[in-house]
């Protein structure tokens, strides 16, 4: 009777032991889905809060460095780079097992559940660690009541997806392993690509030029792209620029730019070099 009761309470597709004693291949699939969920959550934050709404940068809560746009862009760049690494880890764990015979038992529900929990786990971690313990930023920095937005974000995008993933039906819907993995990959890569879209109007973008470009030529090229210089580094190759039309920023590639704006590591390239005022 006890065994029957135990089996009746077991939710299909959910490991009774939390996954600790699962075979390595099954555990890798769950970790892969969870990692994809975390990376999608990070890209969601970066795209919506950093680029579109511009409510904060990663380090906006550091009062002594809040006005240092170079540091803010650098931190955002490192953050996105970390999400790309996590994305690749998740994809690697899934794709290397796509021909495993046991993949036929990997249901769509299980994949969605662990991806949702990864998405929610990121927002819970971000709220507890970045918002409240370390004070790196708040969801809406200029709000008179930032705790309201923190708690709203925590509940809707953190606890909500975690609970949804926990209760998500794990079976019996199945899909071909390659189709299932391709679908998850498409969503994750789509989020990554979206982070490369032009920044919002007026927000600072990093532009890296080659060493052969003169400062005067760079200033002229930026002006032609309807941009204004915020700062440049001591080497004269890395510039922080505000563009009235972010799309026009990409025409700087014709003027010798190596990397413009949304590229994931653009913010962290050579920002350890002290800033200097832009040339007159």
UniProtKB/TrEMBL annotation:
- Annotated segments matching region Disordered: 1-21
In terms of domain of life, where is this protein from? Answer: Bacteria
Q: Which intervals carry biased composition (Basic residues)?
A: 1-12
Q: Which regions form coiled coils?
A: none
The record's annotation in Pfam families points to: DUF2243 (PF10002)
Give me the segments passing through the membrane: 30-53, 73-94, 106-125, 147-166, 178-197
Q: What keyword terms does UniProt attach to this protein?
A: Membrane, Plasmid, Transmembrane, Transmembrane helix
Q: Does the keyword Transmembrane apply?
A: yes
Write down what this protein is called. DUF2243 domain-containing protein
Q: Which organism is it from?
A: Rhizobium fredii
């Amino acid at each position: 009777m006890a065994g029957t009761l135990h089996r009746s309470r077991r939710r299909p597709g959910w490991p009774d032991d939390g996954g600790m004693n699962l075979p390595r291949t099954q555990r890798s699939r769950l970790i892969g889905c969870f990692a994809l969920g975390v990376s999608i959550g990070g890209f969601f934050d970066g795209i919506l809060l950093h680029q579109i709404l511009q409510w904060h940068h990663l380090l906006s809560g550091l009062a002594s460095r809040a006005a240092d746009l170079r540091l803010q862009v650098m931190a955002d760049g490192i953050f996105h780079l970390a999400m790309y690494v996590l994305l690749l880890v998740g994809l690697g764990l899934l794709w290397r097992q796509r021909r495993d015979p046991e993949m036929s038992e990997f249901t769509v529900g299980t994949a969605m559940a662990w991806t949702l929990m990864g998405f929610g786990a990121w927002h819970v971690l971000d709220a507890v660690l970045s918002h409240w313990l370390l004070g790196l930023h708040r969801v809406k920095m200029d709000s008179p009541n930032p705790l309201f937005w923190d708690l709203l974000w925590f509940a809707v995008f953190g606890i909500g997806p975690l609970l949804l993933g926990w209760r998500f039906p794990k079976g019996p819907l199945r899909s071909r392993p390659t189709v299932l993995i391709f679908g998850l990959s498409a969503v994750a890569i789509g989020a990554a690509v979206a982070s490369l879209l032009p920044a919002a109007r007026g927000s600072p973008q990093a532009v890296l030029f080659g060493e052969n470009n003169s400062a005067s030529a760079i200033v002229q090229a930026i002006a032609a792209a309807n941009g204004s210089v915020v700062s440049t580094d001591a080497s004269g190759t890395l510039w922080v620029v505000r563009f009235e039309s972010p799309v026009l920023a990409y025409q700087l590639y014709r003027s010798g730019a190596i990397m413009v704006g949304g590229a994931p590591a653009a913010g962290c390239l050579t920002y350890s070099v002290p800033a200097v005022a832009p040339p007159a």
